[in-house]
Amino acid sequence: MKKDINLLPQDLGPNSQSKQLNTLVGRFALIVGVLILLLGAAGALFTLYLSGSLNASKTQINELSSAIAEKETVEQQYILVKDRVDKARPILSEKSAGTNLSSFQALSSLVSGTVSVTQAEITSDKLAVTYEAVDARDYLELFTTLSSGDVFKDVTLKSFSFSPATGYSASLEMLIK
Amino acid sequence: MKEVDVKSLKKLGMPLAILVALVAVGFIGFQLLWSQINTLRSELALSRETEVALAAKLQVLNDFEVARGNLFTAILAAIPAENPSIMAISQIRNKSATSGVLVDSIEISRATASDVGTSYVDIGFNVSGSVDNVLGFSQTLSSTAPLGRTEKIDMSASSEGTTAKIIYRVYYSSLPDTIPGIADTLAAFNEDDNNILQKLSTLERAEVTNIEPQAPSLRANPFN
Questions:
Q1: What are the residue ranges in chain A where pLDDT is below 70?
Q2: I need a surface site. Which of A76, B154, B160, B210 has the fewest CB within 10 A?
Q3: Secondary structure, 3-state, A69-109
Q4: Distance between alpha carbon B223 and the CA centroid of its chain, in Å?
Q5: How would you label B115-148 residue by residue, b for 16+ Cβ within 10 Å and e otherwise?
Q6: How many Cα neighbours within 13 Å face the side chain of B59?
């Protein structure tokens, strides 16, 4: 039968508690070492992956930059066209006398009987029109339509006069909506 | 008893020292690795962002290259780089002939800078003809290049016909002198931009006659 013989006196030999602690610390150190190695390896691999991705991305950027540089003429034209579009926007969006021509034409179609347009001033925000009519009753239809229409936000009768030579003259100023 | 503890501690010292060293090395190593990973990740994110922006820019340029056709020439004719008064007068003359009106007393104002980065010139002229022709003429002017707007129409009618004093404003603007950096983004044309492009590109351009230089010819009598 096999038997452990300890020739050292009990006092001189390591006690079992310190032996256990020693083993425990050793094992713990081993586990920590292995963990550090594993994490280090994983970190290194991830770093390699990131470096690879970064290099691939930089290569792609270089290729795209070269492709864009080759299209410099197209880019110049694009910038010019874009610049012109941005500058044309406020010009086209603002009202002008030209855009109010249709209002004036619509107004001209309303005159009937002896009424005729003798003077007109068309600007971006208003129409100032002078009418002449032999019979004052001919204005009735024009004035009725003007007062009920929704083209103008304000219609002002600036003057109304009579001359034996030309008849009734009416000057209207209309502010366009 | 105390002697034994010291011995035990001495034996424990080595694994403990290894453990402490491992923890210290591991901590420093992970700090370095973590900072390296963070740097790489931020660089990669930035790089991918640039990549996406460049790809989008290239796409915009490719699309524009396909669609541009004669757009560039048409747009430059619509808002030229220099004072377009002569072109505008040419258009006024052409349109007056086709609209059946007479144009005279043409005056050109000094160029004025507007607050939207363009400059403009007011061209004043008298038009005479029938009311319909005068109005039709005023409307057709806005469909011509260079881009212009009728600012004022002062019309008077008589038994002889209609005369109108028209102020027509034409615009121009210097060319942009810089292009954005390679990595700067280019915004694609939106619907509003496309509508404006459509309007500008369909403006009727003035016909310019180019006289080609002719080769010298021999004359029998050089004094005649």
A1: 1-15
A2: B210
A3: HHCHHHHHHHHHHHHHHHHHHHHHHCCCCHHHHHHHHHHHC
A4: 56
A5: eeebebbbbbbbbbbebebbbbbbbbbbebbbbb
A6: 10
Q: Which of residues 156-175 of A touch B (CB under 8 A)?
A: none
């496309």: which residue's tokens?
B194
The answer to whether residue B1 scores a pLDDT higher than 50 is no
First to last CA, chain B: 141
Provide the token pair at B42.
Answer: 């931020």
Tell me the C-alpha distance between B21 and A31, whole Å. Answer: 14
> Can you give A39-57 as a three-state secondary structure string?
HHHHHHHHHHHHHHHHHHH
**Integer-rounded Cα radius of gyration of chain A:** 49
Q: Which of A37, A79, A85 is most worth mutating to test chain B (most B CB atoms within 10 A of its CB)? A: A85
- Helix (H) / strand (E) containing B88: helix B85-99
pLDDT (0 to 100) of residue B214: 79
Average pLDDT over residues B81-110: 93
**B199 contacts in A (CB within 8 Å)?**
88, 92
Q: What is the distance between the alpha carbons of residues B18 and B42, in angstroms, rounded to a whole number?
A: 35
pTM score over 0.80: no
CA distance B131 to B117: 36
Whether A15 sits inside 8 A of B200 (CB atoms) is no
Distance from CA of A30 to the nearest CA of B (A): 8
- pLDDT tier for residue B173 given thresholds of 50, 70 and 90: very high
Q: Give Cα A118 distance to the centre of its chain.
A: 48
DSSP string, A2-29: ------S-TTTSPPHHHHHHHHHHHHHH
The closest of B71, B121, B70, B118 to B92, measured between CA atoms, is: B121
- Angle made by CA atoms B182, B183, B187, in degrees to the nearest 5: 95
**ipTM reported for the complex, 2 dp:** 0.77
Q: What is the pLDDT of residues A20-55, one digit of tens each?
A: 887 888 888 889 889 989 999 999 999 999 999 999
Cis peptide preceding B146, ω within 30 of 0: yes
